[in-house]
Specification:
By secondary structure, the chain is of the alpha/beta class. The chain is built from eight helices and nine strands. The mean pLDDT is 95.
């Protein structure tokens, strides 16, 4: 699983690097651990943002936080901070021995590339290596989208409102893809 901070769009659809939110690190790591995700990549080229993420991780893994809350430590040990998507893909390939199928998430339907949850589940059940990536800010930039194999259909609610936090969308999506029998 990956959380991409660059390149993403801002509200004016300009290419930017978004700031890391420490709450995203905590919540997505806990989500990853809950659903047996092997690694959570935080992707940002910004040194100050990498340092922030690593400082949070040091506190909760090596520092007092790890003693105070061993459950959180266990989840945060899944997090890896990398400067670019290619580095995360290379690490996955090194670990798994094959390149991953990269599935992006987006709040908009990608007509030519949209993948159903059923198809994504089938790929996962085939024991294929999958790298599910989430965007921050206003979504993944087209530069990232071109590097993906598929784009998962958006999470749609009942009212047409579609602006979930990445933590909320990730929880819904992971439950749909690898949750229990009732999904």
């Amino acid at each position: 699983m990956g959380l991409i901070h660059f390149p993403v769009y801002n509200k004016n659809y300009e290419r930017i690097a978004s700031a890391i939110t420490t709450l995203d690190i905590h919540d997505l790591a806990r989500l990853a651990k809950t659903y047996d995700v092997k690694k959570l990549f935080i992707v940002t080229p910004l040194d100050d943002q990498q340092n922030l993420a690593r400082r949070v991780l040091r506190h909760w893994i090596d520092g007092y936080g790890g003693c105070y809350n061993p459950d959180r430590k266990e989840a945060l040990e899944l997090v890896c901070v990398v400067p670019e998507l290619d580095r995360a893909v290379a690490e996955i390939k090194d670990i798994e021995g094959e390149p991953p199928v990269i599935i992006a998430t987006d709040a908009c339907i990608q007509k030519d590339r949209s993948m159903s949850y059923g198809r994504a589940r089938a790929i996962i059940q085939e024991n294929r290596v999958v790298f599910l990536i989430f965007g921050t800010a206003w979504g993944l930039h087209e530069e990232i989208m071109r590097q993906t194999d598929n784009v998962l259909a958006p999470v749609s609610g009942k009212m047409g409102y579609n602006h979930l936090s990445v933590r909320t969308a990730a929880a819904i999506i992971l439950d749909r893809l690898v949750g229990g029998e009732d999904n």
